[in-house]
Amino acid sequence: MKVTVLGANGMLGTDVVKVLEALGHEVKALTRKDVDLTKPATINDCKWLAKKNADWVVNCIAYTAVDKAEEEPEIAFDVNEEGVLNLCGKLNGGSRLLHISTDFVFDGTATQPYVETDETNPLGVYGQSKLAGEHYSEAMLDDPIIFRTSWLFGPSGKSFPLTMINAHNAGRQLRVVADQFGCPTYTVDLATAIASAVESNLDSGIYHACGSERMSWHEFAERVLSIYKDEEVRLDKIGTADYPTQAKRPAYSVMNNSKLAEAGINPWRPVDSAVEEFVERLRRIHQVP
Ligand SMILES: NC(=O)c1ccc[n+]([C@@H]2O[C@H](COP(=O)([O-])OP(=O)(O)OC[C@H]3O[C@@H](n4cnc5c(N)ncnc54)[C@H](OP(=O)(O)O)[C@@H]3O)[C@@H](O)[C@H]2O)c1
After folding, report:
1. What's the gap in Å between 153 CA and the centre of ligand 1?
2. Is the pTM of this model over 0.85?
3. What is the domain partition of the chain in residue ranges?
């Protein structure tokens, strides 16, 4: 397949390019200097978004600063809403779009894992802007795929596990939120799911594309540090109220990924083995000692 990856230097985009190339696809990896979603001319002029050069466009671009978005909503909406609108205008009738969205479209009041048809109700600007991007993809294109993912971690960006390792190495006493629950998702596994969608010409629609294990940030941090240190690490628990942030976060953003599994896409390895590979890669690129 000919696949154009947008946001190719982001945390997810980097691994999407690697996985697609490893599988033998013809990949065009584009960064902001090639296509800026807030500059329609860069989209219109980009030959790698034309049907003849791309069977698929995988959009890993997003404004992802969840807290900062509360201060600068116009920038978040420019990228995550208007930017997607601009992109869809170009792709209409052309290459298929696989767009990435987020668990933050939900308000976290559910008591069982969210399915794709559950009502959305984002709590903050980031989630609102991402939801608006979903709506544009669905409204403007005949057959878009939207993968909602959550709690992403990979070696090419700022992630929660890396923050925990750095804080631990800096000798900080870690207290971690234990009353927010979600599903950690390793970028390589999500990239593998994306490749499978492309290869199988997956039906259009929204899919929850996240790891299969549900846990709190506290449990995730303990697991990461225990693997990193190769010994059991115990951390102090705190509640959301003890760790105020600018943006409100869903207390429960666990998503049910069985719709994707039923379509034959189920690449999610256990969190511990994903973290082992993640830590190994961080060490290889000298991100952590
Ligand atoms: N990280 C998570 O925990 C998480 C959770 C759920 C969903 N997601 C979704 O997963 C996707 C990938 O996230 P990520 O964590 O890989 O994000 P990331 O590391 O922040 O990467 C975002 C990419 O978007 C690019 N970008 C931002 N604004 C742009 C613009 N106006 N034009 C062109 N490129 C622009 C960035 O380029 P520069 O490097 O030039 O800034 C970067 O390459 C996003 O859709 C995000 O909403 C992430």
Report:
1. 12
2. yes
3. 2-154+184-212+255-268
